[in-house]
Amino acid sequence: MKSRLAALLADVARGEEIAITRHGKVIARLIPEPERRAADAFASVWDSDEAFDIEAPQDRPPADVAPID
């Protein structure tokens, strides 16, 4: 059973959706996890009708750098 599960998971990792059946009836599905991007975390903010204001912090002055000599 473990080797069959490993093969099924490999198929899912390649993008396949696997239907698990019992007596010809689907009881579960193995589906690939959708690819997430950093922008997905902010989707609800960007899609919102509410206005929001974001202010960037002031740039820090450059730090002194020691000479390489």
Could you write a compact summary of the structure shown?
This is Prevent-host-death family protein. This protein is α+β, with helices and mostly antiparallel strands.
Strand order of the largest sheet: 1-2
Instruction: Output the structural class.
Output: alpha+beta
Mean pLDDT level? 85
N- to C-terminal distance: 66 Å
Order of helices and strands: HEEH
Helical stretch tally: 2
Please give the number of β-strands: 2
Return residue spans where pLDDT drops below 50 for at least 5 consecutive residues.
none
Helix content: 10-25%
Computed CA radius of gyration, to the nearest angstrom: 25 Å
Strand content: 15-25%
Biggest β-sheet: count, sense, barrel? 2 strands, antiparallel
Tell me the overall shape. elongated
Walk me through the structure:
It is built from two helices and two strands. It is α+β, with helices and mostly antiparallel strands and 69 residues long. It has a domain of 46 residues. β1 and β2 form a beta hairpin. The longest helix has 12 residues. The protein is elongated. It starts with a helix and ends in a 22-residue tail after the last helix. This is Prevent-host-death family protein. Belongs to the phD/YefM antitoxin family. It comes from Methyloversatilis universalis (strain ATCC BAA-1314 / DSM 25237 / JCM 13912 / CCUG 52030 / FAM5).
